[in-house]
Amino acid sequence: MSGLYMMVTITSRKHMPAFKKNYRENQVEVGTVSLGMGTASSSILDYMGLEDDEKSICFHFVTAATWKKVKKSLQNQLRIDVPGTGIVFVIPMSSIGGKRELGFLVQGQEFVREEESTLKETRHELIVAIANYGYNTQVMKAAEEGGATGGTVLHGKGVGMKRAEQFLGVSLVSEKELILIVARSEQKNAIMQAIMEKAGITSKAGTIVFSLPVTDTAGLRILEDTEENQ
Questions:
Q1: Maximum CA extent, the chain
Q2: Residue 30: pLDDT above 70?
Q3: Interhelix angle 188-199/136-145, nearest 10 degrees
Q4: 57, 136, 137, 167 — which has fewest CB within 10 A?
Q5: What are phi and psi of 137, to 5 degrees?
Q6: Would you place residue 226 in the very low, low, confident or very high pLDDT band (cuts 50, 70, 90)?
Q7: Residue range 126-136: mean pLDDT, rounded
């Protein structure tokens, strides 16, 4: 999936509206917002000019060309290089489940789909499923049938969902759940396919699924050794 990235924004909750406005102006429409808490000490917060450690974490999807434009805009308009404004970073994507889903995520951005990309020596992938609220059990059941051994669920809110019907032929609710699954690279396709077939975009779960490369892991060796010895 050369040239396509997941853009992650972490900023205070009061600043997030300005970021979302900036993204819309740069044709970045679709994303998911979750809430979080920062871990910085009060002295660090004072130094950076922050009043509290309540955070918004926003996930969007951008092409290489869009990211270059967005980065320049963040620096010039939102002064992101000033301490306390927030941070934004991108992670290369390896695959997205479905052509319609890809079109929905990158709407407004010029992108030509290429072959799936993999990093050298990458043994694992992070599978991310974004589902309608209340359907994480259905998604995990499908993932387990595809070979997954477990996952983690986060609560979030979708943005840009009103345009889903135009691209997908279905309407999507704004309340979302993010299901994170770390799996071996050779299992990725089976897990994603199972989610698409049994909890995909046309089901009540309304799930969009994609994957990100994982360069290294800790804590999975014992589980994998057990599976290999069965």
A1: 57
A2: yes
A3: 140
A4: 137
A5: -65, -40
A6: very low
A7: 93
CA angle at 215 for the pair 212 and 217, rounded to the nearest 5°: 105
What is the spatial distance between Cα 194 and Cα 138, in angstroms, rounded to a whole number?
11
Residue 87: the pLDDT is: 87
Instruction: Please count the other Cβ atoms lying within 10 Å of the Cβ belonging to residue 39.
Output: 8
Contact 88, 69 (CB under 8 A): no
Which burial class, exposed, middle or buried, applies to 102 when counting CB atoms under 10 A from its CB (0-12, 13-18, 19+)?
buried
Instruction: Please tell me the predicted confidence (pLDDT) of residue 222.
Output: 45
Nearest to 154 by CA among 123, 130, 178: 178
- The DSSP line for 135-184 is -HHHHHHHHHHTT----EEEEEEEESGGGHHHHHSS---SEEEEEEEEEE
CB 69 within 8 A of CB 26: yes
Nearest CA to 7 among 57, 55, 85, 61? 61
Compute the distance between CA of residue 123 and CA of residue 215 in angstroms, rounded to an integer: 7
Global confidence as pTM: 0.78
Q: For 65-80, how does the pLDDT look when each residue is reduced to its tens digit (9 = 90+)?
A: 999 999 999 999 998 8
